[in-house]
Amino acid sequence: MVMETQIIARECIKPSSPTPLHLKYYKLCLLDQYPNHYYAPRYLFYPFNLSGTADIGAIVSKRLQLLKQSLSETLVRYYPLAGKMTDNYSVDCNDEGVYFVEARALISLNEFLSKPDLSLIFNKFFPADGNDQSGQIAAAHAAKVQVTSFACGGLVVCAGISHMIGDGTTFSSFMKSWAATARKTLEEAVCRPSFDASSLFPPRDAYPREATAKAQFARFKKTGRFVTRRFVFEAKAIVDLKAKATSSSVQHPTRVEVVSAILSKCIMTAVKTKTGSHKPTLLTHAVNLRRKARPPLSAHLVGNIICHANTLCTDDEADLDGLVSLLREAITKPDADFVRSLQGAGGFRNYFQALKDEDEEYADVKDRITFTSSSSFGFYEIDFGWGKPIWVGLAGFGGSIISFATTVVLMNTRLGDGIEAYVFLLEDYMNFLQVDKELLAFATLDPSPLG
After folding, report:
1. d(CA 210, CA 192)
2. Is 337 a catalytic site residue?
3. Rounded mean pLDDT of 33-38?
4. Phi, psi of 288 (to 5 degrees)
5. What pTM did the predictor assign?
6. Pick from 122, 140, 248, 355: most CB atoms within 10 A?
7. Candidate list 163, 285, 300, 308, residue with the active-site label
């Protein structure tokens, strides 16, 4: 698809009232020191939702103004997002503002969604600036937004925060607060974020590089042409997968478990078909530790309150139920005691030891599939006042030669009962995966979000 976009304006949206001086610097917590600085934006596509007699230009302008004003008000509560990153694990809360780009696409929303190009999503809808090209952390915006209007009046709202500030739970809480502010739904909007993570999980002043995600994932990266495909599992297919995956050890598998299992099985098969041999593969799932703590930590606690749960698959003939059992065991292993061990003065020592043990246990493993699930984040409920999104998407790779690790991101379908799986994989392996009959018996490859 060829699609032209025009940048209309670039500006920074500042908080509607200044951040107090005693909040000038926001210190990241121990768990924030692990991830790399990058944005993992979501793209929310909204139809125009008004009759053909409406003045499209005037209404789009009004909606853009509402987005800016409500963002400004939201930033009073989420003040670190209006600041700049530093190179010492903190945010300079200088109120410079969220980098905000306004753009226009010269096609209709339906034209784009009839066959969305995942690589175009990033190139056309993400608000790139100089720091993205330089890779610098210092002075990078903590958050960025681009709103692109389509010829029909539809909008795509792209927003992302630095992963060093928060995880998907933090991001979704921010987006919901922003939308509630726009709708003037005060009860939702005033759910105040908690910035206590650095007190609960004290950071390390001299945090070692070997304990970062960059170091931990280095040996799992492959260099080559990476592509992204979207495999959509509808509700009926998930029911069938659950029935197939049920066993005495896991009697009630979840949507996330069965989709992760079938994708793991088929990705490993694709690699074996291409290379001629099965490779022991580490299956990794991001786990939200807020729910694991006792008592549970607030869903509005800002930070990367997550860990990686790992299981090693050495069986080249692994059954679906066996993979579900492995995943369930790994995901349930982090418990309240583990969360407690990361808190207080001894938190870093225990965290560093856990990462070191993982490195030693899987020292000889070279293949890894990392899963992250956004299925509980409620992105399809984000309504700024003109309705809910028709599609929430991710950007993908279109065959660029890069160094990357096999990754799967799970998202809800619009109705909430299915899963869209974005698979980031070497093209040589994807060529086999996208024709795998076992996988395609349950999933549809790259369907239009319009249905």
Report:
1. 35
2. no
3. 94
4. -75, 115
5. 0.96
6. 140
7. 163
Q: Which residue has the tokens 């939201």?
A: 74
Lowest-pLDDT range, 173-187, 205-219, 398-412? 173-187
Whether 130 has a pLDDT exceeding 90, the answer reads no
Residue 300 falls in the annotated catalytic set: no
Strands (E), 218-266: 222-233
Largest CA distance in the chain: 66
Q: Alpha-carbon distance 27 to 80, whole Å?
A: 10
Enter the tokens of residue 44. 């929310």
Q: Which of 92, 319, 383, 428 is catalytic?
A: 383
Give the pLDDT score at 244: 96
CA dihedral 166, 169, 175, 177 (to 10 degrees): -100
Kindly indicate the confidence band of residue 135, based on its pLDDT and cuts at 50, 70 and 90.
low
State the DSSP code for 203: P
To 5 degrees, how large is the angle CA 58–CA 59–CA 63? 120
Q: Give 344's contacts (C-beta < 8 A, 6+ positions apart).
A: 202
Domains and CATH numbers, the chain: 5-200 (3.30.559.10), 209-445 (3.30.559.10)
What one-character-per-residue DSSP string does 412-446 give? E-TTSSSEEEEEEEEHHHHHHHTT-HHHHTT-EES
